[in-house]
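Quick illustration, no need to memorize.
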Amino acid sequence: MSKPKSKSGNTGALSFEQPIREIEDRIAELEELSSSTKLDITSEIEALRTRLMGQIEETYSDLNAWERVNVARHPERPVTGDYVNLMLDDFFELHGDRTFGDDRALITGLAQMDGRRFMLVAHRKGRNVAERLECNFGCAHPEGYRKALRKMKLAEKMGIPIVTLINTPGAYPGIAAEERGQAMAIAENILGMFDIAVPIICVVIGEGGSGGALGIGVGDRVLMMEYAYYSVISPEGCAAILWKDGERSPEAAEALKLTAPSLIELGIVDEAVPEPTGGAHRSPTETIKNLKEAILRNLDELAEIPLPDLLEQRYEKFRKISHIEGRFPTVADAL
C-alpha cells in the first residue's frame, strides 16, 4: 500500500478522523519547514508518517455503522467517472430512453476491460458542484431507469454481460418524477432484470439507497465496496420517520444493518471488495484495481454457468432474501 498523504486543509475530513488530521497537519508543517529552510528533519517526518499509518489502521479497525455511512459519502471517494477513466480500456456511452430524455444521473454504454466486453449501467454523482447539479447528485428520474432497462435489453440481444455500479442516496422524489412514473419505472426494472438472459454483476460503490439502488440492483452477484452502505432508506430518513429526530441517525444506521459485514451475514450481498486502509478516498487507484479484479473474476465464474441455471439461481437468490424466519406476532402474543 502506498504511504498516506497529508490531507491538511481537507474539507472532506470526517469527524472521527480528528486524531489522523492532527498528525497530517503536523507532517504538513514539517514538510513546509523543511522546504523553506536548510533543516534536515527527514527522520522526524518519517516517524510521523509511521505514526500516521498506525493511527489510520487503529481508527478504521472498528468503525460503527454511522461512521461507515460517512466514509461512503466522502466527497473525495471515487465515483463512476473515476472507474470509467481508470478501470475501463474502452467506453462508448449510449444515451436516452427514446421517450422523454437523457437522464445524466444514470450513465449507460458499451465497455471493454481486459478483453471482456460488457454493458455498463451506473449512477453518476459528479465530482464538482457543476457536475453534481447536472447529475442531480446521483438521484435518477424515471427516464434514467427506462434508459437503463433499454440498454440492458440491448446487452441481452448482443449476448454480453451487464455490470452496474450503484451510488445513489435514492431515486429523485420530486413531483415531476412521480408524474412521469418513477415508481413504475423502478418496478419494471426490478422485474425485467430477473429475465435478462446474460450474466449481471451489481456493485455498490458508495451509497446504495432505497428503490433508487434496486432499480439497477438485481443481479447474479451483488458486490459492495468495504465501506459502502446498502439500505432500504437512509439513516436520516429512518430516524425522521421512526423518532421524528434526525439526531438519532447513528442509532438508525446501526438498526438498519446496512454495512457490508451485516449484509453478507444476512445473505443480501455476496462479496465485500476490500478498500485501502483509511477508505477508498485515500487511494482511489488501489480501490479501482481491487474492484476490477473482483469484476473480472466474477465475470469468468458466471460465464461457466448455463443461462437457464443462471436465471434460476438469480430468481432463487432474491427469493431467499425476502424469506422471513419465524412467524408474525398474533393478537394472542400481545395478551
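The CA atoms of residues 169 and 247 lie 18 Å apart.
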